[in-house]
């Protein structure tokens, strides 16, 4: 009965009839960068690059990218035609390219093409297609022109000549190692020549017959064993024994009579031929005489891309390149693949499902394969065949497989559990029918059988186990209630591990019957890395490993219940990890969603990552889809099928091939660089270059690199470093096509590219070096530095010359400056002398002028005495004018004189001055004429300064004229002009400018007295007016011309107001005010001047005198003073310092102070006023003016005091005349206001609070406020009362007591006396 059920099972599943082909091709076409899909010729050059001739361009391939050469009419060094027919490389490393219209040679050094002219017998150039190219052992290149002659290039002569004119066009040609050239035409058999076509003979077989004379020999393949294989267009392949002369046709198909069009034959190995035909590839084993026909299949992405095969080429690694007509390039890395692939094809015994989920060994050596999209299969590793288990059409989405004896447990997605008896084919099912003892859920993801025989079931809603006796499923309460189970595993200690999707991992301790849950803790780096655990694995060392979906994998450390994490930071390709399988060498093979990782648990590092580049089916594997067979073969399921490999074979495979490393492309500023181009740093191809020199503005470059290994691509593993710029080796980024360096500083660099150590090559690790020198900009180059040195040397010479000349010039300037300084010192000495004399003269003049005015002011006087006194007064005024003139000149020199410009009648001033000098002219019997012009002239002038100018000019004219003086006045444009002409000795032209210099006197015949400053002063005053004063060019008379603008708006804006000392119109405020009650302190070091002032002041005031500031301060401490009059220039303490001390001393700061001085300059006046002076009076002064100033200062104080005392709203600080007094009054008011309501508050209390004696306090209050301290205290009480009454918030009696009065009647009396109104009436107003 058992055999019957087994037979039924076999019949249901089907029978395998043959093994599927295990040859898997890679494909390259136009989508990968190939210029065109028709590949006519393939070669590998001596550097390792693959070259592909297509119908639209020549392509060079480096294992990563294509570089295409095509016809470009703009290039003179490019291909002449893009349709490539054939290729060959000569012994000079050049590539010969036969095109559809001519022959070209590619020079890899320059990357240029050059045409090879071919000429017919008549001398005409041949432009026909080149059908065949072949290079013999001597380096000669044989060229077959389609439907034409055979040419030969001789490397000795470097010339091309026609060697053979065939009767029929040649179809094939090849040269053997002995130098024999074999060729065939379109029919007629096989021919050969042993003397370079001197003699041509047909090849006859042992029977003396031509070989296939009626067929076309399309390809000649020469073997190393005196054998030849001929490709025929109809009869396939014929083997020719060159020694025996026998010809044997190879059996390449089941039907020997079927035609087979052969285009190419390649001896892949001594025992194997690859034959390219119009109907695919035939792989023929010479030794066994078996064949395999490889064809294109639309269902197999790893089959040939096209059946029409045109070219074959075997590279140095043993890889096979196949060129097809429509399918581009097919590449077979090696005869036996590293990874066996099992996927869906049109073979009925292939795997139909793509999403392989479960792999489980059967009891008969076969494997059960569960897929998520096509049900259940059995796989026979012996022949690689799959059989579909037809009942699985009911449960196509398999998620778990478990063998329990002869029963196969199958868990599914949404279909519960199916248990298959593999002997009988009987099936029973378990699902969720909401009855006790049933499954929690029909979604079952894990099945596991413990060593004790218990079967655990992981569902979407928790963990259950199967009770064989009751045929029921019991639940585990600790893993229940929606906890989805991914995997279940029992370790060597009998502990059960359960991985869940979001609840971490559980461990059941069978000895203690206890469950422990491990969860991720973000604050604990030793916790579970992630709560989504995809699988549990125990290695050969009994260590537990967990994989997670998002945080890599980890190893459990039982010592502290810790987890050691491994992720992308440790070299993993992804943090989504599905499963771990350990091989026989102790290495872990770990599946992820980005490739297969080889992990060394001993070193804790990832050794290598395999991806689709290494011929995997897909980079994404599937959950728990892995199995290791007893023979060490590992199986993994992915989303595109199933793969298998032997780790020992994969890791033990070594190759002697060392991939060369090249820099394949070079760009500057993202622009391709042509060899020998304009501004190009390349003189050779970058592939052949060992060094390049760049300009300073070419320091941003881009490089492409490649390791020429096609079987095991190494480019993505390359390391590179720019020594001098990079501080460490960098990993070549797989997703990046280039390496870019931007703005490299000038200097020398070494670009290095190498493979990492341990790349799996038996030879030495290759390395490519490129020396790069970035030149500095010209201004930093050696030439520039030489120029800089010469310039610096020249500059030093120039500097030396300059310093020498400068020292000479400085010495001359120093001498000239010394001379000018001496002249200036002499000039200043004169000015200083006359100024000091003027100051000294003004004081005695004051003593003379003052008494004279007093005497002349008396009405009773003898007439003769009066006349004498008038003469004295006139001469005193004359002396005063002279001193003032000298002082004015000093002011002008020091730029301290300012004009008082005002609109004046110039005509009147000129006439008035003219008439003042008329009497003197008459006395001298000289003609004195005035020409005033028409009308009156008005202008902006300073009257006094203008009169001084006119007086000087007229005085000089009277002094130096002979008989005539003429004064003229006129208007010229916007100015008026005054001319003063005299007929005296004419001033020479060279002297007409120097005479205006100070103290210059022109020597004349009859010398007259003078100071020499009149004209200098006049010119200075004229220039202050914005005018000019000069002599006319007249050579007959002396003509002085004064020109002044009529209107000076800018001058008006800057005119200073008249100073106080010029304003002598102060009214005499003296009257019957009791002036004798006031005291005046006179501070003067000159006894006569002091006595004079005392006499003038003592009539009206009480007078105190002091000789200097120190004595004056002593008097102030003992006496009450109302006004201080002080000189400035005094010994011990001058007037400025005395004034400053008075005004900063609280006791005296209120006293008005008048400064007297002979110093009339503005600076002295400002210094005095800054020190706090109240008035400034110049010497000599008028007695009346001085008395008026004193009276005005006293009167202003009385006015302020009266306003303060009579007006209840005027505050005391209005009485302050200085900041010191203001602070004093504010302090005083604060003290009084604080104690206002205290009727016992006395003056002595206030004096103590302001730290003053009673006497000093009395004098201070009296001086500042002009009242006694008691009066001031009472006044402050009354003013406060007035303010309170005005607010109308208090009654009169309340206000009375608030301000310190104890009697309301006395308060009313005082209020009315002070303000002239009763409090009641004041409050009502």
Automatic annotation (TrEMBL):
Domain named HTH araC/xylS-type: which ranges? 1226-1325
Every copy of the Histidine kinase domain together lies at: 836-1048
The modified positions for 4-aspartylphosphate read 1127
Coiled-coil residue spans = none
**Which GO terms of the molecular function aspect are on file?**
DNA-binding transcription factor activity; phosphorelay sensor kinase activity; sequence-specific DNA binding
Q: Which residues cross the membrane?
A: 778-802
Domain (Response regulatory) spans 1079-1194
InterPro entries linked to this entry = CheY-like_superfamily, HATPase_C_sf, HATPase_dom, His_kinase_dom, HisK_dim/P_dom, HisK_dim/P_sf, Homeodomain-like_sf, HTH_AraC
Q: Which reaction does it catalyse?
A: ATP + protein L-histidine = ADP + protein N-phospho-L-histidine
Query: What EC number(s) does the entry state?
Result: 2.7.13.3
Q: Which domain of life is it from?
A: Bacteria
Q: Which UniProt keywords apply?
A: DNA-binding, Kinase, Membrane, Phosphoprotein, Transcription, Transcription regulation, Transferase, Transmembrane, Transmembrane helix
Please state what the protein is called.
Answer: histidine kinase
The protein's organism comes out as: Alistipes timonensis JC136
